[in-house]
């Protein structure tokens, strides 16, 4: 029953993100959210609305397409006992995005185990995560580095 509810939540979140005005305006589409929230695929086409002066993907749109996903994924997989925030981010532009671009987000068991272990005593943890933005040919367009803030909520710390 729980897995069905989570799958429904993933579908609803995908729908909501695809109609989120900043993403609509930038041409960002969430293509897939796995039922367990551990994998997400995002696509951004190239159009007049996100093209820069030289005709390639606007850098702000490239970052925007990657912004909330690691935070959302950890919030859903860790559950309500955790505070999860974006703390810092940087983007390295590698090559021009001349057409549609894609970002594939993934979190594994190792990361979740590490976060739970490092926050069990109430301490904060600042995991560093990375995602690559690639074009349809597989060429690396940008590399995004995210630092998140994760901590058990006070009520969960007291219960432990």
What would you say this structure looks like, in words?
It contains 6 helices and 6 strands. It is α+β, with helices and mostly antiparallel strands and 160 residues long. It has a single domain, classed as Hotdog Thioesterase (Thiol Ester Dehydrase, Chain A, Roll), CATH 3.10.129.10. Strands 1-2-4-5-6-3 form a 6-stranded antiparallel sheet. The mean pLDDT is 94.
List the helices and strands and how they pair.
Layout: H1 2-18, H2 21-26, E1 28-33, E2 39-44, H3 59-64, H4 69-78, E3 82-93, E4 101-106, H5 109-119, E5 128-135, E6 140-152, H6 154-159
Antiparallel strand pairs: 1-2, 2-4, 3-6, 4-5, 5-6
Largest pleated sheet: 6 strands, antiparallel
Total domain count: 1
- Average pLDDT confidence is 94
* Total count of strands: 6
| Shape by Cα distribution | globular
Query: In angstroms, what is the radius of gyration?
Result: 17 Å
- How many distinct helices? 6
Proportion of residues in helical segments:
25-40%
Q: What is the H/E string?
A: HHEEHHEEHEEH
- Percentage of residues in strands: 25-35%
CATH superfamily: Hotdog Thioesterase
CATH class: Alpha Beta
Straight-line distance between termini:
27 Å
Major beta sheet, strand line-up: 1-2-4-5-6-3
- Low-confidence spans: none
Pfam families: DUF4442
Organism: Pseudomonas cavernae
InterPro entries: DUF4442 (IPR027961), HotDog_dom_sf (IPR029069)
Protein name: DUF4442 domain-containing protein
């Amino acid at each position: 029953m729980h897995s069905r509810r989570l799958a429904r939540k993933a579908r609803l979140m995908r729908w909501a993100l695809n109609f989120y005005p900043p993403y609509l305006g930038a041409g960002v589409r969430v293509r897939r959210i796995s039922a367990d929230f551990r994998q997400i695929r995002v696509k951004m086409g190239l159009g007049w609305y996100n093209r820069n002066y030289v005709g390639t993907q606007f850098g702000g749109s490239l970052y925007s397409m990657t912004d909330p996903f690691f935070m959302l994924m950890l919030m859903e997989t860790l559950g309500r006992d955790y505070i999860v925030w974006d703390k810092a981010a940087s983007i390295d532009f590698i090559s021009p995005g001349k057409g549609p671009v894609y970002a594939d987000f993934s979190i594994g068991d190792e990361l979740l185990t590490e976060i739970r272990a490092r926050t069990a005593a109430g301490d904060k943890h600042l995991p560093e995560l990375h995602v690559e933005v690639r074009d349809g040919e597989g060429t690396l367009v940008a590399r995004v580095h995210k630092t998140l803030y994760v901590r058990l909520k006070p009520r969960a710390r007291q219960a432990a």
